[in-house]
Amino acid sequence: MEEKVKAPKDYEELIRLIHDRYEQMSKSYQKIALYLTQNPNDVAVRSVTAIAESSGVHASSFVRFGQALGYEGFKDLQTLFQKRLSTAAPGFEARIKALETELGARTDRSEFALMHDLVVRDIASLQEMLTAIPPEDMAEAVNLLEKADVIYLIGQLRSAPVVELLRYILTMLGKRCTLLDPGGGLATHMARAIRPQDVLFAVSFRFYANEVVNVVEEVASRGIPIVAISDSTLSPLTKGARVLFAVPEHEYTFSRSLAAPMCLAQALTVALAARLQNNGVDPRIPIVTGQ
């Protein structure tokens, strides 16, 4: 990032510049870029010291990162995140600040308090999706799923519960689907059977499973549509996806929460059920125990 650039004037322009330069960035700058794109609300309301501590990158690196993008320092870059937050859904800024206050003031270290923290943060993540997910992306993803002959699913490690939920609901809706199970090392070979009339639904979060990334790249090279859920628009799934849902993960426990991506997966299948049943008011997803 040696080339001097003109500092972006708004948040959208900044994110475009980060995407354009991401592959040429140093490892530490890539880590900063990921944090900025995954945690825009935290960047808006927290100090550079707190941000640095959360991201594991020294505060001085954030200052140099801002300067490399044409700003005087990190404060000028942070202003764009603050302007973005001020125009978010009504009350959202207040909720984020209340979250910071509530968690920062907590002295209780009991088991229940740990659950309380998880619930509070998950609520904030779920609310964030309402402003972060473009409605047109939801519509396009459901169009692809509805038209697909077979929906292939892939997700490993922490992503596995999301695709297992998708497989269950899609099966109960009578939609043909195939899970690219890593068992036996056959997922990559199974993916070669995906045809142009099918859809691949991929889910992956940091640190992205190599097989998932490889399958997405191979399937995308054949022009097959891909719907993906990941944690950042800088995810390796981005280039191959027809529709990418970036659901930021907030790293605040030993295991990042799946509340938001699970909710998104369920929302997509409910919307698909509404299409298949021609019932936009009260679509139903059958359950095994109800048969």
List the SSEs and their pairings.
Blueprint: H1 11-21, H2 27-38, H3 40-45, H4 48-55, H5 59-68, H6 74-86, H7 92-105, H8 111-132, H9 135-147, E1 151-155, H10 160-172, E2 177-179, H11 187-191, E3 199-203, H12 210-221, E4 226-230, E5 243-246, H13 259-276
Parallel strand pairs: 1-2, 1-3, 3-4, 4-5
Helix pairs in contact: 5-6, 7-8, 8-13, 9-13, 10-13
In short:
The protein has 291 residues and is α/β, with parallel strands linked by helices.
If you had to describe this structure to a student in words, what would you say it looks like?
- The chain is of the alpha/beta class and 291 residues long.
- Helix content is 54%, strand content 8%.
- The protein has 13 helices and five strands.
- The protein has helices at residues 11-21, 27-38, 40-45, 48-55, 59-68, 74-86, 92-105, 111-132, 135-147, 160-172, 187-191, 210-221, 259-276, and strands spanning 151-155, 177-179, 199-203, 226-230, 243-246.
- The protein has a five-stranded parallel β-sheet with strand order 2-1-3-4-5, sandwiched between helices.
- The longest helix is centred in the middle third of the chain and has 22 residues, at 111-132.
- The termini are far apart.
- The relative contact order is 0.11.
The biggest sheet amounts to: 5 strands, parallel
Low-confidence stretches: none
Order of helices and strands: HHHHHHHHHEHEHEHEEH
Radius of gyration: 20 Å
Q: What share of residues is helical? A: 40-55%
Give the strand tally.
5
Q: What would you call the structural class?
A: alpha/beta
Q: What global shape is seen?
A: globular
- Compute the separation of the termini in Å: 59 Å
> Which range does the strand content fall in?
5-15%
Tell me the number of helical segments per DSSP (H or I, 4 or more residues long): 13
**Strands in their spatial order, largest beta sheet:** 2-1-3-4-5
Average per-residue pLDDT, rounded, comes to 87
